[in-house]
Amino acid sequence: MTEQPADAHRSWGLGSADRWGLDQRTGVITWTFPDKTATAPAQILASYNPSSQSRLWAWANQSILPEMSRDARIVAEWGESHGHAGLTQLQIDADDELAATLSARAVRITRATGFYRGTGSASIPIITFGPVTLTANDGTTTTFEIDID
Q: CB–CB of 107/3 below 8 Å?
């Protein structure tokens, strides 16, 4: 369900950045590469803890600003109206495969351009994002968009 968009995003470097960061105040995720930066409007969807195999939706996490969990609330509302309990429970047991499936479903529901599974060992953020602006070191910019239909 998300393989085609993921392949497209890998073409500009998603998954190979030297570092990344998310500013909750601005709602922008930034990936830094040796020759460019990539930025996109972003939302925090959930956090995944691989050691406890649990997933916590962003709307249930008090450390996430409410405006950064809008996509997570959209997914919960969709799950409620369509009878999908896994999309409405604040925390669920989830192995890697289920966590990825829930993320893929959320990307489709919110019509996000893609999602990024952050780095970490205890709590891994799952982030949806929109059109990506690529800024080369010389200052030139291009926008990378995918039409999700």
A: no
Q: Is 68 helix (H, G, I), strand (E, B) or coil?
A: helix
pLDDT at site 36: 98
- The gap between the terminal CA atoms of the chain, to the nearest Å, is 11
Residues in the chain with pLDDT values less than 70: 1-2, 147-149
Nearest one of 119, 117, 106 to 69, comparing CA atoms: 106
pLDDT in tens, 85-125: 888 998 888 888 888 888 888 988 998 888 898 887 788 99
SS3 18: coil
Q: How far is CA 145 from CA 114, 128, 131, in A?
A: 10, 14, 5
Structure tokens at 65: 């600003």
> Which residue stretches of the chain are H helix?
3-10, 70-82, 96-110
Cβ burial of 55 (10 Å; 0-12, 13-18, 19+) is: buried
The token duo for 28 is 């922008």
Burial of 73 (0-12, 13-18, 19+ CB in 10 A): middle
